[in-house]
Design brief:
With about 260 residues, the chain is α/β, with parallel strands linked by helices. It has helices at about 5-15, 15-20, 35-40, 75-80, 115-125, 145-160, 175-180, 200-210, 225-235; strands at about 25, 45-50, 65-70, 85-90, 100-110, 130-140, 185-200, 240-250. The structure holds S-adenosylmethionine (SAM). S-adenosylmethionine (SAM) binds near residues 11, 75, 108 and 114.
Length: about 260
């Protein structure tokens, strides 16, 4: 199964799982990752939440007109159930949206997944207005984890049959910068935040493991005893660090 089919199956089966993890997580100021993103986004204008998932972002932003696009019908149906509007079923590789229509765009926890990445960035630049803002949220990576968290992440990766948890585009920050510059997007921000996911129950701890894109679909399931041990370890620890990185870009005239 290729990554895109895996993602489609995963998000239709486990719709809303990213939100379930992020709303149980907070930084030292008590903000969850979505509140961090909203703080960094213009409060007015025409916004595209690309790969919106269950639509956790900008639900209460009255002055922002939001289009929410995803290719998972499962995620969109959860978004619809919560009353989110502006929902579009579409693909980030070929946006069914007018050129120059958006003053801001968010891509939260998705650009590391979709290939070819340069095509997504090209599409985003096309639908952005001159001077528009783009915020991209990505996993922040291992160096920002302590020893104990890193050890548990490694065990989860091993349970999923990998040495480390990885994504099709890696975290691709250098490539993102290069590809963005080619289409007139100049970097305006590079921020890092570490959030603590709080596991209050076995269910929370299992949700955390399940959210990490392990190849756990039918016929691919790992050893249940190994998973149970990891779940117990997370529960005993009580929290797991989630390091995130937010890159910001501004659409400018060429050359960047
Ligand atoms: C990790 S989730 C993030 C969801 C949401 N942005 C959040 O932060 O909670 C990744 C999302 O990307 C969507 N996705 C994956 N590939 C896509 C594609 N080619 N076009 C549009 N959406 C895609 C998935 O369906 C999923 O909802």
């Amino acid at each position: 199964m290729n990554w895109q089919s895996f993602l489609d199956t995963f998000h239709n089966r486990r719709s809303g799982i990213t939100e379930e993890i992020f709303i149980r997580s907070s930084d030292q100021d008590g903000l969850n990752p979505y509140q961090w993103v909203e703080k960094a986004t213009p409060k007015r204008g025409d916004h595209l939440d690309l790969c919106c998932g269950s639509a956790p972002l900008f639900i209460d932003s009255a002055e922002l007109s939001v289009v929410r696009l995803d290719r998972s019908t499962g995620e969109l149906s959860r978004a619809h159930d919560r009353g989110a509007d502006g929902l579009v079923n579409g693909d980030a590789l070929s946006l069914p949206l007018k050129s120059g229509a958006f003053s801001s765009v968010t891509i939260s926890m998705a650009l590391m997944l979709i290939q070819p990445m340069h095509q997504v960035i090209g599409e985003v630049a096309r639908i952005m207005r001159q001077d528009g803002y783009l915020n991209i949220v990505l996993p922040g990576g291992g160096p920002f984890l302590g020893f104990h968290d890193l050890r548990i992440y490694r065990k989860i990766a091993k349970y999923g049959g990998e040495n480390t948890l990885s994504f099709p585009n890696g975290r691709g920050v250098r490539t993102i910068r290069d590809e963005a510059a080619k289409v007139g997007l100049a970097e305006s921000m590079d921020d890092r935040h570490t959030f603590q996911f709080i596991a209050k129950s076995k269910l929370d701890a299992e949700l955390f493991v399940d959210s990490l894109y392990l190849r756990e679909l039918p016929d691919l399931e790992g050893d249940r005893k190994v998973k149970d041990k990891i779940i117990d370890e997370i529960l005993k620890k009580g929290t797991m660090k989630i390091p995130l990185r937010m890159l910001g870009f501004r659409k400018v005239s060429f050359p960047v």
